[in-house]
Specification:
single chain, about 120 residues, mainly alpha, 7 helices, about 0% strand, globular
Length: about 120
């Protein structure tokens, strides 16, 4: 059952999201111990390890250079503003507006029904 849930959670909701979800699956598998990764049937070889290692190097180098609105989650930013009694700046407001538009567009896009029972045959949409 846990393998079915993992397939469901890590499957792309639409075709546009498929590349991002492929990277998400790679990173998820990379953080798991080998025994657990095998139990979930995540493919893992030299190519996946190299992609995971390169991603970790890129994340380590890029993250500290990002402005806070891009580095922190919206919930973390909201909590910080409440704690410090500050307001979001222009970049943060624009980022929030963009994320909201993306969420609205995703909600409008017709989605094929996904059920945990259909996971084995459900490709990325």
């Amino acid at each position: 059952a846990s393998r079915d849930i993992a397939k469901y959670v890590l499957s792309a909701p639409n075709k546009q999201a498929a590349p991002a979800f492929a990277w998400l699956r790679l990173m998820t598998a990379g953080f798991l111990p080998e025994r657990i990764r095998q139990g979930y049937h995540f493919p893992w070889g030299a190519l996946e390890q190299a992609a995971f290692d390169a991603s970790m190097v890129a994340i380590k180098r890029v993250t500290p250079r990002l402005p806070a609105p891009l580095r922190l989650s919206p919930y973390m930013r909201q909590a910080a503003h409440r704690a410090h009694q500050t307001s979001p700046g222009l970049l943060e407001r624009r980022l929030d507006e963009t994320l909201e538009r993306m969420a609205e567009a995703a909600a409008r896009e017709p989605e094929a029904p996904r059920s945990v029972n259909q996971l084995g045959a459900a490709p990325a949409r």
